[in-house]
Amino acid sequence: MNAPHLDVEQVEAANTAFYEALEEGDFEKVSEFWLTPSDLGVDESYHDPADAGVVSCVHPGWPVLTGRGEVLRSYALIMANTDYIQFFLTDVHVSVTGDTALVTCTENILSGGPAPDGGEELGPLVGQLVVATNTFRRTPAGWKLWSHHASPVLAETEDEDGEDTPP
Amino acid sequence: MNAPHLDVEQVEAANTAFYEALEEGDFEKVSEFWLTPSDLGVDESYHDPADAGVVSCVHPGWPVLTGRGEVLRSYALIMANTDYIQFFLTDVHVSVTGDTALVTCTENILSGGPAPDGGEELGPLVGQLVVATNTFRRTPAGWKLWSHHASPVLAETEDEDGEDTPP
């Protein structure tokens, strides 16, 4: 297999593994998928004017979160409020250019929070149609997430004449 | 000025200029800001398994658009339905790693469509709070957009205890 094929396979595997870590509620594993400046050989004690490797994350409907502190805290918060989550990924597209990879995909999400009465049962399950753009960076430890941006799809994707603008 | 500072300034200028081209409704200029595989020295007649430099775009509430054809058609459509648009960018953050740059920003948008009666007046102006993640790639012709993902902010960004999860 040649190098471009291999890159695409590795990036797609990293993307899938990231969502699996979310499904498992494995905070440690989720944290490991996020890039650190030291993954890039950037000295973290020095203030880098280019903020190389500084991560950002947008959850559906949320403002931008910047830096590992904010981003990882958001995942801890989401995990604390989610008892069950499953991602069915469709329309996965990978574009690799040098040491950066862009993945776009549709996250068909099924999730449920803790039962309202604190009992054994799950809260009501909710389905969500979300699209994501994930930017990965090649590191000695594999492909790591530099940015995740997810947003709700509010409009019909199919239309007879294919000309309608979503709102 | 050292190289990282210069990169950040150039990326920020490219990001600003892209939004100005949108404000001006200048379709040609908007098109020029989008990366082509040939900007990266990729032969477009050869099928590249890594789809290097293949662009993607998500407008607020829309599904993912992939490739220059779909992306540029969406801008033509939006421009045809928008008589007036202004972007007030805030919270601009740039992270440059090698030849790739990530820009996150808040797009405070004010826009209006054509008058409903086809008259001289603007349609009603609408304000929108949108956050964007823009991925730029360094090319011999300057920094070009590889990906744009914009999404509506549906929740409060400030909260007294800073602990609330947006929906």
Automatic annotation (TrEMBL), chains A, B:
Limits of the SnoaL-like domain: 11-153
Signal peptide: none
Pfam families with a match to the protein in the record: SnoaL_3
InterPro entries xref list: NTF2-like_dom_sf, SnoaL-like
PANTHER family recorded: NUCLEAR TRANSPORT FACTOR 2 (NTF2) FAMILY PROTEIN
Annotated protein name in UniProt: SnoaL-like domain-containing protein
